Amino acid sequence: MHQNTKYRLNCLAQIPLKYLAAATAMRMSRGLKPGAGRFTWSITDVGNSVFPDADLRNYYDGKNIREIISGQLQGRRLRRACELGCGYGRVTPILKEFADETIGLEREPHLRELGNRYLNEIVVHPIDDLTDVAKHGPLDLVMICTVLQHITTEHAHRVMAAMKQAVAIGGYILIVESTHSGQALVGDPQRGDQFLSQPRPATFYVEQMKPWSLVSEQPRRMEKNFIGEPGTLMLFQYV
Fold first, then answer.
1. Are 237 and 225 in contact (CB under 8 A)?
2. What DSSP string runs through 34-71?
3. Separation of alpha carbons 104 and 122, rounded Å
4. Alpha carbons within 13 A on the beta-carbon side of 19
5. Distance (Å, rounded) from C-alpha 207 to C-alpha 201?
């Protein structure tokens, strides 16, 4: 079976039957109307209509990242940029707008495979730990987006230290994280649930990033029905 056909069938299987029925009925009704012309229905379109929050979140995250970086660079180009813990590259391509070379670093093999299958001119490299970013320098910008909030404080200390090692003098580190003060949400290891969400105030990151300076900061503006505290974008530089 052709790869595209398998992909479309997989997408189709994930769409609830009531949405498929509604889309099919709409297609048929439009086709029966005189002068309606041809109505083209695609699995991707139906999928997007089922999950508007995901599409809007991608839009707003992209807008936030683009605003804070462009505001600081003022048209200047970077040589090398990297997203650490990039997953399949949901927002990684935004860095390509500002850098001649952009790479992703990801621990999970299935997410790396997706990223390398779909991203243009961006390679997602394997890492064993987030601290491995230090091995991929020198970089002009490292971005980490909603990753530190899901690791322990001790691990976060080591990751931030590694990011500072990876970035050349004059470069930037962009940290996008939940920044309200609150209790950590921890899964139950006995059930195999390794989930951890640890919100930390922005002052935590400012203190840990010293002697790097916070040169720009803005709220993470998200879709209207976003659940929880969206967080903050914090751009640091060391000169």
1. no
2. TT-------HHHHHHHH-HHHHHHHHHHHHHHHHHHHH
3. 7
4. 17
5. 10
No. of helices (H) and no. of strands (E), the chain: 8, 9
What does DSSP assign to residue 142?
E
Q: How far is residue 235's CA from residue 223's CA, in Å, rounded to a whole number?
A: 22
Domain boundaries of the chain, sorted by first residue: 3-50, 52-237
User: Smallest Cα–Cα separation from 236: which of 81, 80, 72?
Assistant: 72
Report pLDDT for 45.
Answer: 46
Backbone angles phi, psi at 187, to 5 degrees: -75, 180
Q: What is the pLDDT of residue 8?
A: 61
- Maximal CA-CA distance, the chain: 70
Class of the CATH-defined domain 52-237: alpha beta
Cα 113 from Cα 180, distance rounded (Å): 33
CA–CA distance, 39 with 153 (Å, rounded to integer): 53
Q: Are 95 and 105 in contact (CB under 8 A)?
A: no
The residue to which tokens 């470069």 are assigned? 171
Position 29 scores a pLDDT of: 57
- 82-130 tens-digit pLDDT: 999 999 999 999 999 999 999 999 999 999 999 999 999 999 999 999 9
Residue 51 above 90 pLDDT?
A: no
Give the burial class of 18: count Cβ atoms within 10 A of its Cβ; 0-12 exposed, 13-18 middle, 19 or more buried: exposed
**Cα(31)–Cα(25) distance, integer angstroms:** 10
Tokens 């580190």 correspond to what residue? 173
